[in-house]
Amino acid sequence: MTELRRRLAAFAAARDWGQYHTPKNLAAALSVEASELVEIFQWLTPEQSARVMEKPDSAHRVADEVADVLAYLLQFCEVLGIDPLAALAAKIERNELRFPVPGAGLPEAGARESGGPETGGPETGGPEAAEKEIRHSSE
After folding, report:
1. pTM score, two decimals?
2. Within a 10 A sphere around the Cβ of 30, how many other Cβ atoms?
3. Contact 8/77 with Cβ under 8 angstroms?
4. Which of 1, 57, 89, 111 has the most Cβ atoms closer than 10 angstroms to its Cβ?
């Protein structure tokens, strides 16, 4: 990861792009690249999307967009001084506390903590509900 971040910084510096790599611009570029990744899957059925990596052309497009998203995310982190792996580890730890494994503790406390029916949040403890809650809490 460190080597990739170094290479991205050197690439941008050699082209004098640092002046454009503001947090706002990098966040916008990250959003655009994420949208280009979504575009590949836009009209696919769930079954087709699960098989997207089986076709060389679509696999190449997906890999390229993933690389673009990661590159902009790493550059964004570099500009703001964020260690992306440390940030992810901390977020996973918080989510493990917020969304306990069903049946692993006190059900009532877990349901309230994870945004269950008592708080008007997601009704189930499934991944979709947790992701909705994660997105909502970070806004």
Report:
1. 0.72
2. 19
3. no
4. 111
Give the relative orientation of helices 84-98 and 127-137 as an angle to the nearest 10 degrees: 120
72 is written with which tokens? 């902009």
Which pLDDT tens digit goes with each residue over 75-134? 999 999 999 999 999 999 999 999 999 987 655 544 444 444 433 444 445 555 555 554
Beta carbons of 30 and 69 less than 8 angstroms apart: yes
What residues contact residue 104 under an 8 Å CB cut-off, 6+ apart?
Answer: 110
Measured at the CA of 134, the angle between CA 4 and CA 95, to 5 degrees, comes to 80
Whether the CB-CB separation of 112 and 105 falls below 8 Å is answered with no
